[in-house]
Protein backbone atom coordinates (compact mmCIF):
# COMPACT_ATOMS: atom_id res chain seq x y z
CA UNK A 1 0.00 0.00 0.00
CA UNK A 2 1.48 3.42 -0.95
CA UNK A 3 2.55 5.61 1.95
CA UNK A 4 4.10 9.01 2.67
CA UNK A 5 7.49 7.28 2.94
CA UNK A 6 7.38 6.54 -0.80
CA UNK A 7 7.86 10.28 -1.34
CA UNK A 8 11.30 10.41 0.29
CA UNK A 9 12.86 10.11 -3.19
CA UNK A 10 11.02 12.98 -4.88
CA UNK A 11 14.15 15.18 -4.98
CA UNK A 12 16.44 12.27 -5.93
CA UNK A 13 16.13 12.03 -9.70
CA UNK A 14 18.44 8.99 -10.11
CA UNK A 15 16.37 7.08 -7.52
CA UNK A 16 13.17 8.04 -9.32
CA UNK A 17 14.63 6.89 -12.63
CA UNK A 18 15.67 3.56 -11.12
CA UNK A 19 12.14 3.09 -9.79
CA UNK A 20 10.64 4.01 -13.15
CA UNK A 21 8.80 6.95 -11.60
CA UNK A 22 8.40 10.68 -12.08
CA UNK A 23 6.93 13.43 -9.90
CA UNK A 24 4.00 15.72 -10.71
CA UNK A 25 3.87 18.81 -8.50
CA UNK A 26 1.01 21.23 -7.91
CA UNK A 27 -2.75 20.93 -8.18
CA UNK A 28 -3.07 21.87 -11.85
CA UNK A 29 -0.35 19.47 -12.99
CA UNK A 30 -1.68 16.61 -10.87
CA UNK A 31 -5.25 17.24 -11.97
CA UNK A 32 -4.19 17.06 -15.62
CA UNK A 33 -2.21 13.90 -14.92
CA UNK A 34 -5.35 12.35 -13.42
CA UNK A 35 -7.70 13.61 -16.13
CA UNK A 36 -5.60 12.57 -19.12
CA UNK A 37 -4.87 9.04 -17.85
CA UNK A 38 -1.86 8.73 -20.17
CA UNK A 39 0.37 7.51 -17.34
CA UNK A 40 -0.23 4.86 -14.71
CA UNK A 41 -0.28 6.58 -11.32
CA UNK A 42 1.40 5.23 -8.20
CA UNK A 43 -0.33 7.60 -5.74
CA UNK A 44 -1.26 11.17 -4.90
CA UNK A 45 -0.06 12.93 -1.73
CA UNK A 46 -2.10 15.94 -0.60
CA UNK A 47 -2.79 18.17 2.34
CA UNK A 48 -6.37 18.20 3.62
CA UNK A 49 -6.89 21.63 2.03
CA UNK A 50 -5.74 20.40 -1.38
CA UNK A 51 -7.79 17.23 -1.04
CA UNK A 52 -10.93 19.30 -0.51
CA UNK A 53 -10.15 21.60 -3.44
CA UNK A 54 -9.42 18.66 -5.76
CA UNK A 55 -12.28 16.49 -4.52
CA UNK A 56 -14.13 16.38 -7.84
CA UNK A 57 -11.09 15.24 -9.81
CA UNK A 58 -9.98 12.75 -7.16
CA UNK A 59 -13.41 11.15 -7.07
CA UNK A 60 -13.26 10.45 -10.80
CA UNK A 61 -10.10 8.39 -10.25
CA UNK A 62 -11.09 6.01 -7.49
CA UNK A 63 -8.40 3.64 -8.77
CA UNK A 64 -5.63 6.01 -7.61
CA UNK A 65 -4.47 5.79 -3.97
CA UNK A 66 -4.74 9.18 -2.23
CA UNK A 67 -2.64 9.88 0.87
CA UNK A 68 -3.72 12.83 3.01
CA UNK A 69 -1.10 14.23 5.37
CA UNK A 70 -0.31 17.47 7.17
CA UNK A 71 2.03 20.00 5.63
CA UNK A 72 4.88 19.64 8.10
CA UNK A 73 4.93 15.84 7.76
CA UNK A 74 5.09 16.16 3.98
CA UNK A 75 7.91 18.70 4.18
CA UNK A 76 9.81 16.43 6.57
CA UNK A 77 9.55 13.45 4.23
CA UNK A 78 10.12 15.19 0.89
CA UNK A 79 12.94 17.44 2.05
CA UNK A 80 11.88 20.57 0.21
CA UNK A 81 9.69 23.60 0.86
CA UNK A 82 6.41 22.04 -0.09
CA UNK A 83 3.87 24.81 -0.63
CA UNK A 84 1.62 23.66 -3.48
CA UNK A 85 -0.34 21.17 -1.40
CA UNK A 86 -0.15 18.31 -3.83
CA UNK A 87 2.31 15.78 -5.28
CA UNK A 88 1.87 12.63 -7.30
CA UNK A 89 4.13 9.77 -8.27
CA UNK A 90 3.49 8.21 -11.67
CA UNK A 91 5.15 5.50 -13.73
CA UNK A 92 7.21 6.32 -16.78
CA UNK A 93 6.36 4.55 -19.99
CA UNK A 94 8.61 1.53 -20.35
CA UNK A 95 9.58 2.36 -23.94
CA UNK A 96 9.93 5.56 -25.94
CA UNK A 97 7.34 6.35 -28.60
CA UNK A 98 8.83 5.20 -31.93
CA UNK A 99 9.77 7.97 -34.34
CA UNK A 100 7.40 6.57 -36.95
CA UNK A 101 4.46 7.09 -34.58
CA UNK A 102 5.36 10.77 -34.24
CA UNK A 103 5.45 11.16 -38.01
CA UNK A 104 1.67 11.42 -38.22
CA UNK A 105 1.80 15.01 -36.94
CA UNK A 106 2.11 17.86 -39.47
CA UNK A 107 4.20 19.95 -37.06
CA UNK A 108 7.07 18.57 -34.97
CA UNK A 109 9.51 20.45 -32.75
CA UNK A 110 13.03 18.99 -32.59
CA UNK A 111 15.28 20.04 -29.69
CA UNK A 112 19.06 19.64 -29.64
CA UNK A 113 21.32 20.32 -26.67
CA UNK A 114 18.79 22.13 -24.45
CA UNK A 115 19.75 20.93 -20.98
CA UNK A 116 17.81 23.41 -18.83
CA UNK A 117 14.59 21.79 -17.51
CA UNK A 118 12.82 25.15 -17.35
CA UNK A 119 13.52 25.69 -21.04
CA UNK A 120 12.32 22.18 -21.87
CA UNK A 121 9.13 22.85 -19.94
CA UNK A 122 8.64 26.18 -21.70
CA UNK A 123 9.17 24.60 -25.13
CA UNK A 124 6.59 21.90 -24.45
CA UNK A 125 4.13 24.47 -23.12
CA UNK A 126 4.44 26.52 -26.32
CA UNK A 127 4.29 23.41 -28.49
CA UNK A 128 0.96 22.43 -26.93
CA UNK A 129 -0.42 25.96 -27.23
CA UNK A 130 0.65 26.38 -30.87
CA UNK A 131 -0.61 23.05 -32.23
CA UNK A 132 2.76 21.32 -32.57
CA UNK A 133 1.81 17.67 -32.34
CA UNK A 134 5.05 16.08 -31.11
CA UNK A 135 8.54 16.82 -29.81
CA UNK A 136 11.78 15.11 -30.79
CA UNK A 137 14.68 15.31 -28.32
CA UNK A 138 18.35 14.51 -28.72
CA UNK A 139 20.25 12.50 -26.10
CA UNK A 140 21.55 15.63 -24.28
CA UNK A 141 18.21 17.42 -23.83
CA UNK A 142 16.81 17.59 -20.31
CA UNK A 143 14.21 15.08 -19.16
CA UNK A 144 10.66 16.31 -19.93
CA UNK A 145 9.40 14.34 -16.90
CA UNK A 146 11.81 16.00 -14.49
CA UNK A 147 9.76 17.75 -11.77
CA UNK A 148 10.76 21.30 -12.77
CA UNK A 149 10.15 20.67 -16.47
CA UNK A 150 6.70 19.24 -15.84
CA UNK A 151 5.79 22.10 -13.51
CA UNK A 152 7.08 24.81 -15.88
CA UNK A 153 5.22 23.24 -18.79
CA UNK A 154 1.91 23.35 -16.88
CA UNK A 155 1.65 19.59 -17.60
CA UNK A 156 2.33 19.97 -21.34
CA UNK A 157 5.19 17.46 -21.04
CA UNK A 158 2.52 14.96 -19.96
CA UNK A 159 0.31 15.79 -22.93
CA UNK A 160 2.57 16.28 -25.95
CA UNK A 161 4.02 12.97 -27.22
CA UNK A 162 7.79 12.90 -27.51
CA UNK A 163 10.68 10.65 -28.44
CA UNK A 164 14.38 10.80 -27.62
CA UNK A 165 16.80 9.94 -30.42
CA UNK A 166 20.50 9.22 -29.79
CA UNK A 167 21.28 10.43 -33.33
CA UNK A 168 19.05 13.45 -33.97
CA UNK A 169 20.45 14.26 -37.44
CA UNK A 170 19.72 10.68 -38.54
CA UNK A 171 16.16 11.05 -37.21
CA UNK A 172 15.76 14.30 -39.15
CA UNK A 173 16.97 12.50 -42.27
CA UNK A 174 14.33 9.82 -41.78
CA UNK A 175 11.64 12.48 -41.40
CA UNK A 176 12.82 14.14 -44.61
CA UNK A 177 12.29 10.84 -46.44
CA UNK A 178 8.74 10.89 -45.03
CA UNK A 179 8.10 14.21 -46.75
CA UNK A 180 8.88 16.68 -43.96
CA UNK A 181 10.66 19.98 -44.57
CA UNK A 182 13.32 20.62 -41.93
CA UNK A 183 13.50 24.25 -40.76
CA UNK A 184 16.42 25.15 -38.48
CA UNK A 185 16.48 28.20 -36.21
CA UNK A 186 19.72 30.18 -36.10
CA UNK A 187 20.77 33.77 -35.25
CA UNK A 188 23.10 33.74 -38.31
CA UNK A 189 22.50 36.92 -40.31
CA UNK A 190 22.83 34.99 -43.59
CA UNK A 191 19.73 32.90 -42.78
CA UNK A 192 16.31 33.79 -44.18
CA UNK A 193 14.35 36.20 -42.01
CA UNK A 194 11.29 34.48 -40.55
CA UNK A 195 8.90 37.09 -41.95
CA UNK A 196 10.30 36.46 -45.44
CA UNK A 197 9.79 32.69 -45.39
CA UNK A 198 7.62 31.52 -48.28
CA UNK A 199 6.21 28.11 -47.41
CA UNK A 200 2.85 26.53 -48.00
CA UNK A 201 1.46 26.36 -44.48
CA UNK A 202 0.05 22.90 -45.26
CA UNK A 203 3.54 21.43 -45.81
CA UNK A 204 4.66 19.09 -43.03
CA UNK A 205 7.44 20.74 -41.04
CA UNK A 206 10.01 19.95 -38.39
CA UNK A 207 11.27 23.05 -36.58
CA UNK A 208 14.73 22.47 -35.08
CA UNK A 209 15.96 24.55 -32.12
CA UNK A 210 19.29 24.32 -30.32
CA UNK A 211 20.88 25.57 -27.13
CA UNK A 212 21.38 29.29 -26.60
CA UNK A 213 25.14 28.92 -26.22
CA UNK A 214 26.28 26.38 -28.79
CA UNK A 215 23.30 26.49 -31.15
CA UNK A 216 22.67 23.60 -33.50
CA UNK A 217 25.43 21.21 -34.50
CA UNK A 218 26.79 21.03 -38.04
CA UNK A 219 25.16 17.60 -38.67
CA UNK A 220 21.76 19.04 -37.67
CA UNK A 221 22.25 22.00 -40.00
CA UNK A 222 23.26 19.58 -42.77
CA UNK A 223 19.83 17.92 -42.60
CA UNK A 224 17.98 21.24 -42.82
CA UNK A 225 16.14 22.43 -45.89
CA UNK A 226 15.93 26.01 -44.67
CA UNK A 227 17.80 28.13 -42.13
CA UNK A 228 15.62 30.76 -40.49
CA UNK A 229 16.46 33.68 -38.22
CA UNK A 230 14.27 36.01 -36.18
CA UNK A 231 15.37 39.62 -36.77
CA UNK A 232 16.14 41.33 -33.45
CA UNK A 233 17.49 44.67 -32.34
CA UNK A 234 21.28 44.64 -32.89
CA UNK A 235 21.78 45.59 -29.23
CA UNK A 236 20.35 42.18 -28.23
CA UNK A 237 22.58 39.13 -28.51
CA UNK A 238 19.74 36.71 -29.19
CA UNK A 239 16.39 35.48 -27.94
CA UNK A 240 15.89 32.85 -25.28
CA UNK A 241 15.33 29.48 -26.98
CA UNK A 242 11.76 29.29 -25.68
CA UNK A 243 10.91 32.76 -27.00
CA UNK A 244 12.57 32.13 -30.37
CA UNK A 245 10.97 28.72 -30.90
CA UNK A 246 7.56 30.05 -29.82
CA UNK A 247 7.70 32.89 -32.34
CA UNK A 248 8.70 30.46 -35.07
CA UNK A 249 6.04 27.88 -34.12
CA UNK A 250 3.40 30.58 -34.33
CA UNK A 251 4.64 31.92 -37.68
CA UNK A 252 4.89 28.44 -39.20
CA UNK A 253 1.72 27.04 -37.67
CA UNK A 254 -0.69 24.90 -39.65
CA UNK A 255 -3.48 26.97 -41.16
Provide an overview of this structure.
The chain is of the alpha/beta class and 255 residues long. The chain has two domains: 4-91, 60s Ribosomal Protein L30, Chain: A, CATH 3.30.1330.30; 99-251, SPOUT methyltransferase, trefoil knot domain (Alpha/beta knot), CATH 3.40.1280.10. It has twelve helices and eleven strands. It has a seven-stranded parallel β-sheet. The chain starts with 12 loop residues before the first helix and ends with a helix. The relative contact order is 0.14.
The CATH superfamily name of the largest domain is: SPOUT methyltransferase, trefoil knot domain
Range of strand content: 15-25%
Low-confidence stretches: none
Largest sheet report: 7 strands, parallel
Number of domains: 2
* Number of beta-strand segments: 11
What structural class do you assign from the helix and strand content? alpha/beta
CATH topology of the largest domain: Alpha/beta knot
Intertermini distance: 49 Å
Return the CATH architecture of the largest domain.
Answer: 3-Layer(aba) Sandwich
- Rounded radius of gyration (Å): 20 Å
Mean pLDDT: 94
The largest beta-sheet arranges its strands as 7-6-5-10-8-11-9
**Shape, per Cα inertia axes:** elongated
Class of the largest domain in CATH?
Answer: Alpha Beta
